[in-house]
Amino acid sequence: MTSGDKAQPLLLTNVKPIAFGDGTTDATTDILIGADGKIAAIGSSLAAPSDALRVDGKGAWISPGWVDLHVHIWHGGTDISIRPSECGAERGVTTLVDAGSAGEANFHGFREYIIEPSRERIKAFLNLGSIGLVACNRVAELRDIRDIDLDRILECYAENSEHIVGIKVRASHVITGSWGVTPVKLGKKIAKILKVPMMVHVGEPPALYDEVLEILGPGDVVTHCFNGKAGSSIMEDEDLFQLADRCASEGIRLDIGHGGASFSFKVAEAAIARGLLPFSISTDLHGHSMNFPVWDLATTMSKLLSVGMPFDKVVNAVTHAPASVIKLSMENRLSVGERADFTIFDMIDADLEATDSNGDVSRLQRLFEPRYAVIGSEAITASRYIPRARRLVRHSHGLSWR
Ligand SMILES: [Zn+2]
């Protein structure tokens, strides 16, 4: 549902607020949003102007708009990215954070062709490597020091500081070869100079997950925190688990970053059972993870719920937690005069077969089902993604599922 060319007021009725900071009640309310996109009134049985569009929430939850802290949406500028519209408002997500698809050499295109025209709010971690993910995992962005231009990174940030929220480093031998942990140290140096967080992808060592944690500080983000890769899983090495647990308590943010290869039900379930919860839940959606095994943010949230993460913590992990990383205010989100930015969703009973990145299967009994994304005075109909059938694709290294 959209308001067409001319903005109209929007009346949301019968919605149940959650995660606005005042505790959760079962009471429903109405919210009137003016044509200017700002909240005009909150209360029961609100009268609306005659030209207002009406959306009946039918008792659904309404939360601050969901934030996906790790996606790849530099569509057309990288071979791996999807369009913002494929993982944004129509999936219930109002803020998308691109995790290093663009580097300093091509960030201007990302800004002009993706960030500026999109209806979703888009922020970005700038890749430490100049070229970003142009030909992802084929032309690696961090082979040696010639792939990093410190001066140009600083210039790029100065020109785009309203869009760039941090520095991204993929610390895995697929990208860095035997270069080890040095690019992480360089990334941390730049992040310190710019006073922004660094997001590090942990995967196939080197670098070791352990080494990465030793370099990061409070406010930095480890994505793929619950991966199940040999040499990088926090459940195969008790010392690494203890280190991750301590780092999390000291303010290093453990982010899910599901992706095609980086989320394990077994690791997540064991960590959560021991009290180590992820800070944020993100998808790492891109062209090779969307149809299998990720689908969307709501399904990823449902997966974390299924392995023991409490409902309110899951909601927090896609609202307040990622918002704090990108310095997006969550204060007074449900107050008259504030710009409307909401996700309306239900919890539904289901029996859905879902797969992690290791091919392990779980049956999800409860699903987050987005109904609308509300961006200003626009209510966009939302739903979970229905994956296309998987295809067996032939390429130079053999066969793989896509
Ligand atoms: Zn990624």
Structure description:
There is one protein chain. With 402 residues, the protein is of the alpha/beta class. The protein folds into 2 domains: 10-63 and 333-347 and 364-381, Urease, subunit C, domain 1; 66-326, TIM Barrel. Helix content is 24%, strand content 27%. The chain is built from 12 helices and 17 strands. It has helices spanning 84-87, 107-115, 150-159, 173-176, 182-194, 209-215, 238-249, 265-273, 290-294, 297-306, 311-316, 320-325, and strands at residues 10-17, 29-33, 39-43, 53-56, 61-64, 66-71, 93-99, 121-127, 164-171, 198-202, 221-223, 253-255, 341-355, 361-375, 378-381, 392-395, 398-401. Strands 1, 2, 3, 4, 5, 13, 14 and 15 form an 8-stranded mixed β-sheet that branches. Strand 14 (361-375) and strand 15 form a beta hairpin. The radius of gyration is 21 Å and the shape is globular. It starts with 9 loop residues before the first strand and ends with a strand. The mean pLDDT is 94. Bound molecules: zinc ion. Residues 70, 72, 99, 259, 284 line the site of zinc ion. Zinc ion binds next to loops.
